[in-house]
Design brief:
By secondary structure, the chain is an alpha/beta fold. It folds into two domains: about 150 residues, Medium-chain alcohol dehydrogenases, catalytic domain (Quinone Oxidoreductase, Chain A, domain 1, Alpha-Beta Complex), CATH 3.90.180.10; about 140 residues, Rossmann fold (3-Layer(aba) Sandwich). The protein contains eleven helices and 16 strands. The strands form three sheets. Strands 3, 5, 6, 7, 8, 15 and 16 form a seven-stranded mixed beta sheet that branches. It has a six-stranded parallel beta sheet with strand order 11-10-9-12-13-14, sandwiched between helices. Helix 5 links the parallel strand 10 and strand 11. Helix 3 packs across helix 10. The longest helix is centred in the last third of the chain and has 16 residues. The chain is globular, with a radius of gyration of 20 Å. Bound molecules: NADP nicotinamide-adenine-dinucleotide phosphate.
């Protein structure tokens, strides 16, 4: 089978298409024939060697996929060959992946396989950051960074479904127009506008209840300045590849709460996961959540797909397709 391997840390040219054996599912595992593999910014950080605790080359790229169970291993109950699924896995950019039973979810029937590939990482991150950690509620205001990206588009819709007002910051006027179409109340181009001044103007001098910060660098101190006393900033990523220092005296003086977020601590929380999946199914049934796959490339173009994401040329979800059509 085909699999995209990160041969060494570096640019997109370090991704190589290799022919490798189809793996065998072990105890409690399933072999999934992949239809679509999700691309996430974490894949790019791993490829660059910048992901905390990330794998060392050579390693298979990608960690989420959608597809059909081909075979179940011993002691895996509740799943069978032919089930349509999404999963967390290793070496996601492959024709087949192995998923542990605890990392499988049924594919929502309202979504096609490409859309479903956005559920493991981007939907669950958006949900748990805003709802489980941020406790975003009706009437509150949230500022989202990279609001036109895969995660951003999910967060924007979930925030609206919770009755919150959304200020969406992103990197071009075209992206601002795109998120306005999706219901963003106040799009802001943070490469052109002063975000702190814009937030102040939009809120008539008030500030946000919650900020989800994914860019790092200078954007972190700007995020804090958009936050009301006792408001929370969730540090979720550093797409600029620049971590930021925070002045703790400023935190106490302003009563700001700074929270780190990493998805895998939340996927182990059974009751939080049940809430996330119940809300997903309800929002899909009520047509209150759309998954926008704006870029689907064949698996052999993984390097090109990484380049597009890294160069800020994408909006919504980016997937790789294997060509398999169940
Ligand atoms: N902690 C977690 O568990 C977790 C889980 C999922 C995602 N994340 C993080 O959430 C963020 C979004 O992830 P995603 O997969 O949905 O990616 P994405 O938002 O689709 O793509 C990344 C976006 O970051 C923005 N960006 C800002 N400065 C950038 C720079 N210097 N270089 C490249 N991009 C820059 C770009 O949007 P603009 O042009 O609009 O600025 C770009 O489109 C990433 O930081 C990711 O690491 C964290």
């Amino acid at each position: 089978m085909r699999s995209i391997i990160v041969t060494q840390y570096g640019g997109p040219e370090t991704l190589a298409l290799r022919d490798v054996p189809v793996p065998e599912p072990g105890k409690g595992e399933a072999l999934v024939r992949v239809v679509a593999a999700g691309i996430n910014y974490a894949d790019i950080m791993q490829r660059n060697g910048l992901y905390p605790g990330g794998p060392k080359p050579p390693f298979g790229a990608g960690f989420e996929a959608s597809g059909v169970i081909e075979k179940v291993g011993p002691d895996l109950s509740g799943w069978k060959a032919g089930d349509a699924v999404v999963c967390f896995c290793e070496s996601g950019y492959s024709d087949y992946v192995i998923a542990q039973g605890t990392h499988l979810l049924p594919k929502p029937p309202q979504l096609d396989y490409q859309q479903a590939a956005a559920i493991p990482c981007q939907y669950l991150t958006a949900y748990h950051a805003l709802c489980t950690l941020g406790n975003l509620s009706e009437g509150q205001t949230v500022l989202l960074h990279a609001a036109a990206g895969g995660l951003g588009v999910m967060m924007l819709q979930i925030a609206r479904n919770r009755g919150a007002r959304v200020i969406g910051a992103c990197g071009s006027d075209e992206k601002c127009a795109f998120i306005a179409e999706l219901g963003c109340d106040h799009p802001v181009n943070y490469r052109k506008d002063d975000v702190v001044a814009r937030v102040k103007h939009i809120l008539g001098g008030a500030r946000c209840d919650l900020v989800v910060e994914t860019v790092g660098g200078d954007m972190v101190s700007q995020a804090l300045r958009c936050l009301k006393p006792r408001g929370m900033v969730i540090a979720l990523g550093a797409a600029s590849k620049q971590p930021a220092m925070i002045n703790t005296v400023e935190l106490l003086a302003n009563n700001w709460i700074v929270a780190g977020f990493h998805l895998f601590a939340y996927t182990e929380d059974t009751s939080a996961m049940m809430r996330a999946m119940q809300d997903l199914h309800q929002w899909l049934a009520e047509e209150k959540l759309v998954v926008l796959v704006n870029h689907a490339l064949p698996i052999e173009d993984a390097g090109r797909a990484h380049e597009m994401v890294e160069n800020r040329q994408t909006t919504g979800k980016v997937v790789l397709t294997t060509g398999y059509q169940p």
